[in-house]
Amino acid sequence: xxxxxxxxxxxxxxxxxxxxxxxxxxxxxxxxxxxxxxxxxxxxxxxxxxxxxxxxxxxxxxxxxxxxxxxxxxxxxxxxxxxxxxxxxxxxxxxxxxxxxxxxxxxxxxxxxxxxxxxxxxxxxxxxxxxxxxxxxxxxxxxxxxxxxxxxxxxxxxxxxxxxxxxxxxxxxxxxxxxxxxxxxxxxxxxxxxxxxxxxxxxxxxxxxxxxxxxxxxxxxxxxxxxxxxxxxxxxxxxxxxxxxxxxxxxxxxxxxxxxxxxxxxxxxxxxxxxxxxxxxxxxxxxxxxxxxxxxxxxxxxxxxxxxxxx
Length: 311
Hints:
alpha/beta, Rossmann fold
């Protein structure tokens, strides 16, 4: 992994984690807000209902904004119902005008990995959304994972995102961690991600790789023995970081898999009930210890969950 340079982005190392940071006064002000409101969420009845609500959020963003818009795709289970609905609608042409204005980015990736590896998020998105979706959007920018210079490619990704005006809609999930902590994207507890960090490169554990491979197998992803062997040899996770989340104009979070990931039933209430300190140094430590708390600071977030999150 080679280091890279950018005029606007600085490199910060915390333990084995590399963070790419950019100063932004607006994001600093969001982080330092003196009054943190209670975390609101909506309980919907089915995963398909959550998917419809997410698709309506995308339509609203494009309806209310002139010109193009930028969306961050969500991997895993959280957005699969929305992707099915988009895939089914594409043949009708009803989404053509919307898709033609849409710049699509991924939010995390395993690396190093061939882009056509059946266990990559890119291949999974192509499987779920279909090739026609990617032909119709204005652009698609994944995190490049088949390179020796991960930092340099991640900086290019960030610079393109910035050149398009930043994130209009960030679809996020929610991951459980030990001790009822949590992660967003792949911002892991105690990895040192801070308010100025826009992206990170984090060492990957064997347990995460096993979970990833098992999840993709269960989801029906097509993969070869070479794909699996290459994935088991991955060393890092690329991820968007706290500043990217706080800088997004709208965040829509979905939690639909508590029945298969029951640890979320402990992690989510902890995010709901944590009292966020007014002392900014303590607040930063709280965020690092439990990154799911970052969304508590965002002024424009909608969280959609299923009833099984509380069973």
